[in-house]
DNA sequence: GTGGTCTAGACCACA
DNA sequence: GTGGTCTAGACCACT
């Protein structure tokens, strides 16, 4: 309930990386706020049928990054002093993915209009997939 | 000269994959046409300070895929009977990159409009970077 | 009031260990003398926002070690027959910390003189921080 | 020959941490210079009879810290642009260990002179342990 | 050859 | 209950 991760074991990007990336973005967006508790290593591992060490590795990375805070014997929490970032900062985090897509579109000889239209469809689908979209009432 | 690759050794996607993907997309778009010659393994390796075996692996993959043709003593060429693909086919190749970006945008709490706007800027920049844009004069 | 602990929850050394070590050293130096009362578990826990069980664990260790004495309903006291130790014994307790620092200094390529000078500054600062220095008026 | 680590499996500080700390200090001192290759994960693991994953964990931390650079398929190297640090910077790295020792000395009721003398003996011993001291001819 | 990832499971330490 | 550390060993990917 507090947070559900999308883990795709078959994805080429490693599982621990999927966790790291999702936490990063959710903290940036404020959907994970300072002080929030994360699911325990064991709970997350069991929920997705992955190894606890894989989860632990992700959490450790996020801790050494200053995004999470370990409270001994109690669990992992979103670090204090981690306010949600501004729209500009969040757009900067999105930039690399957009640039990669733009380069591919160019190499594929697609027009900007064609690429934008396809992206819009993807965005609609992504919003629909979410349990409840943050966009509309 | 005929073709310049964007190789980023520090990118998480392996170098040989970067080469393979770029060739695939350029053949799909027709910017590499049947019969065109590719840079020699040595030339490409030297130009980007990468291992010749890495280039060779990429070319071999593309050859076994039927996209390239090795002419002994002469080099690698785009195989005949490799017409550019339709727009729909090329959009399908672009899809994965767009979906990844869309998911990230959602996790970052960005609206579809904000994401689209940012993507448009990336497309403009990508077009500007190209020696000559395939879209308009 | 009688004794103030330096507790750093983020320190890699566990909290209960920080308490145990500080009590041990203060008893060795005589700054905690036989019969002195220690702060109650609750008081110490509240003062440093730590778990009472953590304090309790530290006190229990010190009790089983013979350093402290639990007087029912009254609190914890420094055990009788616990004379301050000799300078040589106290230096032996300091040794591990000095050896660790010496090894680090060597790995950092610092000369003995540079390390000693820096240590002297630390000692001065530590003396200054103390309410009243045990060395001179 | 290139680099030998001091690994003490019985030390309370975890093995991977011992490796991380030693690399950090050696890079700071210049005894490991930019571009130097580190022992391979497997070699280091075998030499000290520890698990390759333990070494790998240490190297990964150092990489994410920017101190080491992974060259795919070739090994780990000290990152470029990692000049040895100034004496002041190296003293700053030594500071925490010195402060801990100073606080302990104070709690033990030892005079600054007594602590300094003991530290000097430790430094002499540390220098003697080193194969060849960097201090004298 | 190199490092990366993941698993399964043990054991420890902390609260 | 929590996370941390380590092992043993498999499999993958890159050069």
> Number of DSSP strands of chain A?
2
Rg of chain A computed from alpha carbons, rounded to a whole number of angstroms = 17 Å
Strand content of chain A: 5-15%
Kindly name the structural category of chain A.
mainly alpha
- Estimate the global geometry of chain A from the Cα principal axes: globular
What is the topology, as strand order, of the major beta sheet of chain A? 1-2
Can you tag this structure with a few keywords?
homotetramer; 137 residues; mainly alpha; 2 strands; DNA-binding
Short description:
The first copy, chain A, is mainly α. Chain A is built from 5 helices and 2 strands; from the N terminus they run H-H-H-E-E-H-H. In chain A, 55% of the residues lie in helices and 6% in strands.
Describe this structure in words.
4 copies of one chain form a homotetramer. Chain A has 137 residues and is mostly helical. Chain A is built from 5 helices and 2 strands; from the N terminus they run H-H-H-E-E-H-H. Chain A has helices at 15-29, 41-48, 52-64, 87-107, 112-129; strands at residues 68-71, 75-78. The longest helix of chain A has 21 residues, at 87-107. Chain A starts with 14 loop residues before the first helix and ends in an 8-residue tail after the last helix. In chain A, 31% of the residues are buried. Chains in contact: A-B, A-C, B-D, C-D. Chains A and B meet through helix 1, helix 4 and helix 5 of A and helix 1, helix 4 and helix 5 of B. The structure holds a DNA duplex (15 and 15 nucleotides).
